[in-house]
Amino acid sequence: MSKTAIETVNLVKQYPAVLRNVRNRHPWMAWQVGGLREIFSRKKNFIRALNGVNLKIYRGEVFGLLGPNGAGKTTLIKILCTLVLPDSGEAYVNGYNVIRESSRVLRNLQAVLGDPRGFDWRLSAKQNLEFYATLYGLPRDYAKKRVEELLDLMGLSDRANDMYQRFSTGMARKLQLCRALLLDTPIILFDEPTAGLDPASAVDFRRLLKDKLAKSEGRTIFIATHNMWEAQTICDRVAVINRGEIIACGSPENLKMYISPEKNYVLTIDGYCDALKMKEFMNEASGLCGVKDLRLQADNASVRISIRVDKDFVFSEILDIMVKYGLKIKDVESYEPSLEEVFIALIRGGKQPI
Amino acid sequence: MINFSNLSVAVRQVTAFAKRDFRDWRTYKTQMITQVITIAIGILSWAINAVYRNRPVPEYDTDYISFLVVGLVIGNLVMPISQGLERRLNPWTLENIIMTGISIPVFVAGQMAWPYIFSLITFIPQLLIGIFWFGVKLSINPLSTALAFIISAMILLGLSMISVGFRLVTKSTDPITWTINTLQQLLAGISFPVQFLDSFLPGVSSLSWFLPQTWVYHLWRLSMLKAAAITDPITQIEFLKGFIFALILFPIGYRTFKWGLNRAKKDGTLGWF
């Protein structure tokens, strides 16, 4: 069995823009038959939402798709959900083609699309889920059991009989996840999973995705988000999409290397150290292979050494020299760019080697 | 004491609402035109109806009140089939429903199930009111009535799927279904026999028989007012004609619905109004 859960090959999608030029030239004609003209006209302007997207998402991983608004994240998710048809290219879900084998795709993948209006407002949470369980074709007894299990899992059992319109954003999101889990598919997609959630609910939701769905149950999780911290916290790998193109892909750690291939440390040394020993330490340490820069800053209270090294540098080599000269370390700080900084650098700087 | 400064603010606010709704309304160009034409056709149809009032209806061997009441009751029974799908199409739940992998025929039938059950529940009381209050005289053939129901359901399902197929793309009134439904008001013989139209414009009644809804009303009235037996060759021919309409419309409706769904998926507008 292939290790790939989702694969896209040169996926292209463009949307028709408004027919402004035709209307401006023949406003009365367009006004009269505007509806039919727009349906059948081939003279359209297009907005390119996806421009040759190639992605491979492996089974059991938590994959994040990062991008600014309008970058193509939702379009990609909807193509995978069979709700939008691509113009060219291929997309596969567990080996099934999203166009030709859409019903098999939907047996392998479900999604939490984020729009809270996707339930019947005047039905209870339980009634809504039972309705969808029936549409998924679950046997009656199993469906009832599954609905109860999922409501319990999400902590919604107490509110199971409340009308959906009484639900808060967080509860609505949990109910959407219940619906996505009804069929027990191996792949779950999330469009902005924690948008609109309060910080505590967001933490709970992330924990649920990472620990329960991904780690314990081994599902493949695909999230589209512009929350960098979220992606850094829960994703095994991330891809950055901008203007319909994947401009970087890798683990969050690897992506950080794109903008900073080096590591930075700041060591705070006990202030009562021998100046001569310190000088000898500086000389020896700066000669180490992989050390790019070494600076000493001293004040009344402490001595601080800033070190910039290659990403593969073994830091214990510095520590060994310190021990040799009897220097006592009070604190070590390492600095690396956040995923947010990486994201901004990538969006501004263009495509990176993937 | 009237505070004129508050009043002027209130007037401006009311105007702002009207302006907003006008701007919204004029963005649906097709709907704008169709609304105006619908009003005109409505006036025309009521005018013809008023002229016809209280004449006997030899086509169905009945009086006018029976003809009219049965027509209205049939309308209430079968029209929800065509309107149910369109009215209950909720773009927000549509994406989620499609993601369940449900088949199109099941989706269509499911969307219309409740409106139709409700119509069935109200059908009998409406008839009873017609009989006991207005003296409607029924002459029913059960077998023909059942056949009329099946044929009209197929015709209206087909129309309904055409309508929804277009609506998924246009997001407002679709011109084709609107044309059929508007012409129905004038030509399908809801409140006067179609032959009466010839007294205004000779030959126009022949156009009526190209409208699917004319067949719906015609077959039901034959079964409920004239007790037309299906063993009668003339009745058989009438039912056969209606059935041909159904056979043509149903697959066209299915394909149009599928086309609309694919087109909306292609345009990425499935979840839009």
Walkthrough of the structure:
The complex is a heterodimer of chains A (354) and B (273). Chain A has 354 residues and is of the alpha/beta class. Chain A has two domains: 4-257, Rossmann fold; 261-335, MTH889-like domain (Alpha-Beta Plaits, 2-Layer Sandwich), CATH 3.30.70. Helix content of chain A is 39%, strand content 28%. Chain A is built from 13 helices and 14 strands. Chain A has helices spanning 20-25, 27-40, 73-80, 102-108, 125-135, 140-153, 169-181, 199-216, 228-234, 252-259, 275-286, 316-324, 339-349; strands at residues 4-16, 46-58, 62-66, 88-93, 96-97, 109-112, 187-191, 220-225, 237-242, 245-250, 262-270, 291-298, 302-310, 329-335. A six-stranded mixed β-sheet of chain A has the order 6-7-8-3-9-10, sandwiched between helices. A four-stranded antiparallel β-sheet of chain A has the order 2-1-4-5, with helices on one face. Chain A has a four-stranded antiparallel β-sheet with strand order 12-13-11-14, with helices on one face. Chain B has 273 residues and is mainly alpha-helical. Chain B has one domain (29-267). In chain B, 75% of the residues lie in helices and 0% in strands. In chain B, helix 3 (64-87) runs antiparallel to helix 5, helix 3 crosses helix 6 and helix 9 (212-225) runs antiparallel to helix 10. At the A-B interface, strand 1, helix 2 and helix 4 of A face helix 2, helix 4, helix 6 and helix 10 of B.
